């Protein structure tokens, strides 16, 4: 074989191998955000007017108690069950930290037991405390080591969500080396609404030893069935990203895009407003101490530069949700320096003119952090957050309650609730 | 299965090459087969898993050019000539440095665009790799064959990652490329610089002139 022939063959092989598309190649989704149709919205608006304002609260507690509980997330399964997943252990970053799960069955749910909207949210009948199932471990260090076949030091943040095929996914953090900036993401799938879980899958998302990708906020669903999961990077730079997930059987195909670079923003909470437009609310780690926001008009691929909102941020996570009226509800720490309160506010356009509607918790020198918001198919809004970093608090309310607080009919709009 | 075995083999090569490095540093310390023994240690079971799989926790996505570099180091005592010639070494070092310098600062947060994301797209990094491989093979530079092998690995799915970048560069390879490039540049500078006559040469010249 002549040198020219040999070279030609090798050149053809190289070109073919690199240019031939791989069957499992991840593809960036081009589908719009999944939103309730206008008919559904109209139906919800009618239902909202007829609804009695309701607000309820529960604690999800460990028996025996654990010293540290943090970072809850919520999801509604196909059967209408609400699932909560969080991590807990002897302290943050300890080896005994595990991801726990509990579920609230709709048949025995708070929705069936209305309480007057005037009742303080922390006054709940004893019976309501029993509606969350006893917490159970779904991932701990041993399970993750077994599933992933490698050394791991600890587990951390987790987010639970359902896809269009009714599968429940858990995306969670593991760390082999260092602190939170050494995090990697992994996914686990449940085909039976969270009762049993498939082995974990490691997600490769970073070229730098695949570390420093973390998850915190709620995902957004696309009409194509794909999922946009907000994540963030924390090593050297601190910036928000969007992880695009395509669920196939019990695996996820992943790609990601960036919201912005730099060293200032974390934990984006994304709220789709119309099919291709969404707002991302960002935790701000800079001395500006303001929540920042970014906008996209192309389904989440490009984002405007971050701008300050007129809401403070003590370097803490926020959660946000689009209401059926089109307004945006946000749960945040209403302080520039501490996480001593957890407040709800509403804005008509999601950017300007925020009206505080309730303070759910407020206690000096205590921490109320990491809120997570979802709206169930029955219209009830579920909020979970870390209560004094000791247990998880679940607050459920409907849009009628939000409107009542907003209009000030009960004389409490904008005021702090005891 | 292959994405389970591949990182194990790379960890074996890393342990072997590190042992060889220590041998070179201490002027031939230990027998010639010691690096091979270090490679074998990777497969020793520790609490039900091969040692290499425990190390896997620290990194699972090693690039194909790194494997070529490690193989070159380990096999050196057994081969009559180096696995890669100087031209391929130079191409490898430049490629590692340029790719690393382009990718890592951006991946760590410099700017609003993530260059890593084009590793999932087509035409993206895969196309650039194809062009580079074709060019190097045409120039008969054996680093082109390494890129060809990376293409095979990418199609087979040797790594956990689906991203083409991970088949081409990793932090260890980039670090070795920087070291290699510094050494190559220093060597080139030495070659270019005319040798200054030593004092003994000057003395002998003076003596011979005098005589």
List the helices and strands and how they pair.
The complex is a heterodimer of chains A (418) and B (211).
Chain A (H helix, E strand, L loop, with lengths): L2 H17 L18 H13 L4 E6 L7 E9 L5 E8 L8 E7 L31 E4 L1 H8 L5 E9 L5 E8 L7 E8 L10 E3 L9 E3 L4 E2 L5 E7 L5 E10 L2 E8 L6 E10 L2 E8 L5 E7 L10 E6 L6 E4 L5 E5 L8 E7 L7 E8 L5 E8 L5 E7 L3 E7 L1 H9 L11
Antiparallel strand pairs in A: 1-25, 2-3, 3-4, 4-5, 6-7, 7-8, 8-9, 10-12, 11-12, 12-13, 13-14, 15-16, 16-17, 17-18, 19-20, 20-21, 21-22, 23-24, 24-25
Chain B lengths: L1 H24 L8 H8 L3 E2 L2 E2 H5 L8 H12 L10 H22 L17 H14 L4 H14 L7 H5 L2 H22 L6 H12 L1
Antiparallel strand pairs in B: 1-2
Major protein interface: A-B, 50 and 58 residues
Quick one: biggest sheet of chain B? 2 strands, antiparallel
Shape of chain A: globular
**Spatial order of the strands forming the largest sheet of chain B:** 1-2
Q: How many angstroms separate the termini of chain A?
A: 87 Å
Mean pLDDT of chain A: 89
The structural domain count of chain A equals 1
Helix segment tally of chain B:
10
**Helix and strand succession of chain B?**
HHEEHHHHHHHH
Please work out how many helical segments of chain A DSSP would assign.
Answer: 4
Query: What is the average of the pLDDT values of chain B?
Result: 88
Quickly give the structural class of chain A. mainly beta
Proportion of beta-strand residues of chain A: 35-45%
Give the tally of structural domains of chain B.
2
Q: Residue ranges of chain A: pLDDT <50 for 5 or more in a row? A: 107-120, 122-130
């Amino acid at each position: 074989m002549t040198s020219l022939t040999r070279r030609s063959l090798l050149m053809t092989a190289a070109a073919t191998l690199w240019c031939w598309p791989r069957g499992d190649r991840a593809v960036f989704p081009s589908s719009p955000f999944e939103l309730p149709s206008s008919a559904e919205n109209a139906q919800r608006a009618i239902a909202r007017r007829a609804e009695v304002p309701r607000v309820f609260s529960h604690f999800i507690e460990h028996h025996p108690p654990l010293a540290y509980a943090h970072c809850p997330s919520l999801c509604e399964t196909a059967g209408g069950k609400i699932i909560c997943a969080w991590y807990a252990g002897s302290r943050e970053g300890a080896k005994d930290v595990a991801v726990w799960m509990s579920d609230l069955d709709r048949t025995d749910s708070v929705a069936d037991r209305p309480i007057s909207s005037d009742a303080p949210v922390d006054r709940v009948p004893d019976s309501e405390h029993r509606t969350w199932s006893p917490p159970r471990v779904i991932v701990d260090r041993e399970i993750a080591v077994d599933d992933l076949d490698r050394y791991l030091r600890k587990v951390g943040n987790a987010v639970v969500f359902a896809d269009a095929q009714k599968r429940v996914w858990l995306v969670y953090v593991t760390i082999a080396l260092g602190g939170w900036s050494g995090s990697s993401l992994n996914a686990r799938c449940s085909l039976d609404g969270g009762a049993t879980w498939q082995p974990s899958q490691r997600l490769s998302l970073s070229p730098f030893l695949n570390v420093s990708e973390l998850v915190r906020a709620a995902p957004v669903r696309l009409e194509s069935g794909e999922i946009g999961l907000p994540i963030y990077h924390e090593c050297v730079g601190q910036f928000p990203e969007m992880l695009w997930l395509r669920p196939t059987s019990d695996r996820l195909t992943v790609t990601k895009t960036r919201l912005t670079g730099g060293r200032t923003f974390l934990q984006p909470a994304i709220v789709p407003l119309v099919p291709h437009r969404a707002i991302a609310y960002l935790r701000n780690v800079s001395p500006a101490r303001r929540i920042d926001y970014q906008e996209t008009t192309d389904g989440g691929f490009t984002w405007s530069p971050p701008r300050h909102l007129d809401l403070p941020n003590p370097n803490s996570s926020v959660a946000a949700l689009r209401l059926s009226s089109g307004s945006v509800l946000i749960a945040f720490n209403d302080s520039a320096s501490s996480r001593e309160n957890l407040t709800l506010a509403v804005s008509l356009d999601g950017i300007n003119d925020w009206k505080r509607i309730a303070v759910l918790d407020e206690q000096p020198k205590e921490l109320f952090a990491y809120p997570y918001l979802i709206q169930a198919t029955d219209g009830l809004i579920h909020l979970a957050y870390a209560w004094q970093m000791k247990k998880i608090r679940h607050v459920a309310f409907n849009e009628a309650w939000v409107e009542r607080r907003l209009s000030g009919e009960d004389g409490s709009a904008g005021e702090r609730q005891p | 299965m292959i994405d389970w075995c591949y990182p194990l083999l790379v960890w074996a090569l890393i342990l072997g090459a590190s042992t060889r490095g220590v041998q070179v540093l201490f002027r031939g310390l230990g027998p010639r087969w010691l690096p091979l023994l270090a490679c074998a240690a990777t497969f020793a079971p520790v609490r039900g898993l091969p040692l290499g799989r425990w190390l896997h926790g620290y990194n699972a996505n090693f690039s194909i050019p790194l494997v070529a570099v490690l193989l070159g180091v380990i096999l050196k005592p057994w081969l009559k000539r180096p696995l890669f010639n100087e031209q391929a070494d130079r191409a490898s070092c430049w490629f590692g440095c340029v790719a690393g310098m382009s990718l890592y600062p951006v991946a760590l947060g410099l700017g609003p665009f993530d260059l890593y994301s084009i590793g999932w797209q087509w035409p993206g990094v895969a196309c650039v790799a194809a062009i580079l491989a074709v060019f190097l093979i045409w120039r008969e530079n054996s680093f082109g064959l390494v890129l060809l092998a990376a293409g095979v690995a990418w199609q087979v799915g040797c790594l956990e990652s689906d991203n083409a970048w991970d088949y081409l560069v990793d932090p260890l390879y980039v670090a070795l490329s920087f070291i290699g490039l510094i050494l190559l540049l220093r060597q080139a500078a030495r070659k270019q610089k005319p040798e200054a006559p030593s004092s003994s040469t000057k003395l002998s010249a003076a003596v011979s002139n005098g005589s």
